[in-house]
Amino acid sequence: MSKTISSTITAFYSLYPFDSPILITSTGAMTYAYLAPALNQPNDWTLTNAGLISGALYNANNATDATVSVANSGTISGIGVSLYGANISLTNLSTGKIISAADGLYAGATDVTVSNAGTITADANGLDLKATNATIANSGTITGGLSGISLRGRSGTGGTKPSATLTNTGNIRGTSQGIYVRQGSVVINNTAAILGGHGIVATGNNTTLAVTTKGLLSGTTSAGFWIQNGAEASITNKSGGVVTAVHYGVYASGSLTVLTLQNDGLMDIGSSAYGVKVVRASANITNSGQIMWGKFGIAIQNAGATITNSGSIFATSYAIQFAAGYTNLLRLKPGSYFNNKVSGGNSIGSSIVSTLELMSTSGVGTLSGFGSQIFNFAAVTIDAGAQWGVSGSMTIASGMTLANAGTLSMLSGNLFNASTITNTGVMKSGVTLTGSTGVLVNAAGGTISTATSLGAIYAAGSGTVSNAGLISNSSAKAVYLLGGGTVTNTGTVSGAVGVKFGTGGSGSVVNSGSMTASASGIYLRAGGFVSNAATGVISASYGVQATGTGAVTLRNAGSVTGTNAAVKLASGNANRLIVDPGAVFSGLVDGGNSISSSIASTLELASAVGAGTLTGLGSQFVKFRQVTIDAGAQ
After folding, report:
1. Above 90 in pLDDT, residue 373?
2. With contact defined as beta carbons under 8 Å apart, do 365 and 333 qualify?
3. What is the model's pLDDT at position 451?
4. In this predicted model, what pLDDT tens digit does every residue of 566-597 receive, in sequence order?
5. How far is CA 503 from CA 450, 472, 494, 527, in A?
6. What is the pLDDT of residues 310-366, one digit of tens each?
7. What's phi and psi for 363, nearest 5 deg?
8. Per residue in 432-443, pLDDT tens?
9. Sign of the alpha-carbon dihedral angle for 268, 270, 271, 277
10. DSSP structure class, residue 98
């Protein structure tokens, strides 16, 4: 059977399943269209309205097994459409209008499908869907006095998590919020406009929201996105997408709330507002677009966060502000720009560390304002394959660390280190150790290469250098520690001078690698200790040289070569040369003190496995008044 209504019916009117399919023609009009159940009949209705329903279209709220399909090209007004059942479908065609003093469509069902190309206007919610599975496609206009669309999922059989998918190519607007989501997994794709006091709200710890927007998302009185009470939200604002808001582009709060944000478009926020604000929530934020002109670009409170930036963040106060007391990570890619302050949250010396990571891409990045504009990052890492230049000076203060696995260049200024720098990559600029606490570790595979008048590694005071890679300076000293210190080399050191210690303190060198220089391999000006292992090679004009005051103890089991002298020690000091069996000296070995001097230099022949051979005593080995042979030596 079927029913066609082409006249006006003003009374309450029941439409039964056996009346289906039902057609209300363009001349037809009804006040209240009630889809009434019938005994021994499936509760299935198909209704097409090209006319007017002025009161309501609805069925019984206990019609849990109903299947209702409505196609509207006319007008439904009054209190709109209210349907319950197993399967509800509403198609509002381009000429269709739903104008309601309540909800435009309320649907409580297992499966709900809505396609809107027309206009839905409601005093409450444009769409209010309480469904296990909902699919919405909007190319028209949906407007609600509360929400444009309210998605309140209901669990399916066995507690199945509800789900919904919304594709918007039209306009959705709500006075309170454009879209309200509570409970369920919801996917929203927007290429047009979603507007509301809040653009989109997601709430509840059983709510998972995934939004991709390439259109306009606007919080006309508050936030573009408002995520709270344990909801999990993944938001992608694609290139071409625009998020605007009065107070917050994105706001996320609650200890169980999780925010993942990818901004490739524009977030344009009021000058006293926040681009992104996170309070007590977990956040992973990536920006390759623009976040502009809030008081704070991104602000994290009472929580740790990871922020990755390759775009631009403009703010009148802080571009980024992390929270103190949490482990924070800022990851920068080439192209990153901040017009204002970036704080890692944790002060230097805190037991909890914030990390600045300089990442690898195809381009070369520039880091500016480190320590002044970008601060409170105790750990700095440069990824393998990354290429970064630093504009201005960079200080690794006490309590900080720098780990470089990429390529680092100082574009202007100097790199100062009062703590620890570890290099496994390439450093094209020198390092100045400061405060007598600076430690430089150049690990295997690491290269520090520069041309500077001071030293590839330089310290006005003392310092500690450990090298298993390559340290070179084509112009002067490879390592120059004015105040003394310690150098351990298992790699390669080369320069005009390999290692030089100044008059401010004694030096210590332990070498099992290679040291080559055009002048001095090792040069001590205040005494010290040198140990050259069996695998060690020292080759220069002067292999080991000492001047000034301070005795030198040199132990050699490897090879020391000097075209002027293999060893040239200073007079007036009680110097000691310890020779292990197998040691090689190519060139003069000068103990420093003449035989008649009151201060003696000592030549010690050490004990080891195997027998040693000493030749040239008095011709190659000179100025040693004392010669000792250790017990067990051969």
Report:
1. yes
2. yes
3. 86
4. 999 999 999 999 999 999 999 999 999 999 99
5. 24, 23, 22, 9
6. 999 999 999 999 999 999 999 999 999 999 999 999 999 999 999 999 999 989 999
7. -100, 180
8. 999 889 999 999
9. negative
10. E
Task: Classify the C-alpha dihedral 119-122-124-127 as positive or negative.
Answer: negative
Query: Residue 402 — pLDDT band, cuts 50, 70, 90?
Result: very high
- Cβ burial of 361 (10 Å; 0-12, 13-18, 19+) is middle
Query: How far apart, in whole angstroms, are the C-alpha atoms of residue 281 and residue 202?
Result: 14
Task: Name the β-bridge partners of 172.
Answer: 142, 194
Residue of 578, 521, 528 lying closest to 550 (CA atoms): 528
Instruction: Check whether the bond before 37 is cis (ω within 30° of 0).
Output: no
pTM: 0.94
Kindly state the helix (H) or strand (E) to which residue 129 belongs, with its residue range.
strand 127-138
75-80 contacts at long range (C-beta below 8 A, 24 or more positions apart) = 75/51, 75/99, 76/49, 76/52, 76/100, 77/52, 77/53, 78/31, 78/32, 78/53, 78/54, 79/55, 79/103, 80/56, 80/104, 80/105, 80/106, 80/122
CB 339, CB 317: distance < 8 Å: no
Question: Residue 435's pLDDT is what?
Answer: 87
Tokens of 630: 């250790």
DSSP summary character for residue 350 = -
Task: Report the percent of the chain where pLDDT is more than 70.
Answer: 100
Which has the closest alpha carbon to 454: 428, 429, 476, 431? 476
Residue 419 and residue 438 in contact, taking contact as beta carbons nearer than 8 Å: yes
**Residue 467 token pair:** 């090298």
Tokens of 218: 């606007």
